[in-house]
Write a structure and sequence with these properties.
By secondary structure, the protein is an alpha+beta fold. The protein contains six helices and six strands, in the order αβαββααββααβ.
């Protein structure tokens, strides 16, 4: 796919001070295999938000929706652009239409992520959330929980075998193509933290 909307990654050759500042911050806040105790909230303490899960790119979410024939009902006013169909199967959404119509691109960019996360929630029987990791290599992540709701959501996994099954399903789902390596669940600093990352 040619459109840059779907391309994610470090901006090679960008030496602007602003970008270099963000790169330095990202290097200071890499993903964690285990969350530190000081990052768990406690009375009088409000640590930054971290999410635990698998990161993904927008392009991967779109192609996941295509591979799995995920569908979305279309409003009457939007049907003409989609060949008059009342329901869009993402497998029928071709690159030419994405390239030529910005509104369709933005619609697809939003919906494919929601559809993928909903599909994975059904397959795992677990309420995943969408989060955005603090990285320029990824556009979003399938979040099992944050450091603020981990205890509550762990109740959905009453047995270790249930958690293992969820991780196995997500590991396979996030690595269906050779060019997308989201190999394990990790704790990621959330891009939308209210206070922002600590300055270097």
């Amino acid at each position: 796919m040619a459109t840059s909307l779907w391309e994610t990654g470090p901006r090679v050759g960008d030496t602007s001070p602003e970008y270099l500042k963000w790169r330095a911050l990202m290097d200071k806040l890499p993903p964690l295999d285990r969350i530190r105790r000081n990052l768990l909230p406690s009375p009088g303490e409000k640590p930054p938000v971290y999410h635990y899960g698998f990161p993904f790119t927008r392009k991967y979410a779109l192609n996941y929706a295509r591979r799995h024939h995920l569908t979305v009902p279309l409003a009457v006013k939007d049907r003409d652009k989609m060949g008059g169909r009342p329901v869009l199967d993402f497998a029928d959404l071709d690159d030419a239409l994405l390239e030529s119509d910005r509104a369709v691109r933005m619609f697809a960019a939003t919906m494919c992520i929601s559809l993928m996360i909903d599909d994975l929630s059904r397959k795992c029987d677990f309420p995943f959330d969408m989060a955005r990791p603090f990285s320029d290599a990824w556009d979003g992540m399938v979040s099992l929980w944050s450091n603020y709701d981990v205890e509550r959501k762990l109740h959905w996994c009453e047995e270790p075998s249930e958690f293992k099954k969820i991780i196995e399903i997500l590991t396979a789902a996030m690595n269906e193509t050779d060019d997308h390596k989201s190999l394990k669940a990790q704790w990621w600093f959330d891009w939308d933290n209210e206070s922002g990352p600590e300055q270097p």
